[in-house]
Amino acid sequence: MTVKIQNKIVGYEVATKKTEEVAPVAEVESSPQEPVKSVAEVIQLQPVLRRPEDLEGSTYKIKTPLFEHAFYVTINDIVVNGRRRPFEIFINSKNMDNFAWIVALTRVMSAVFRHGGDATFLVEEMRSVFDPRGGYFKPGGKYMPSLVAEIGECIERHLIKIGMIQPAELPPDLAAKRQAVAERGGVGNAQCPKCGQFSVTRLDGCDTCLECGYSKCG
Question: Pairing mode, if any, of strands 136-137 and 200-203?
Answer without folding.
Answer: unpaired
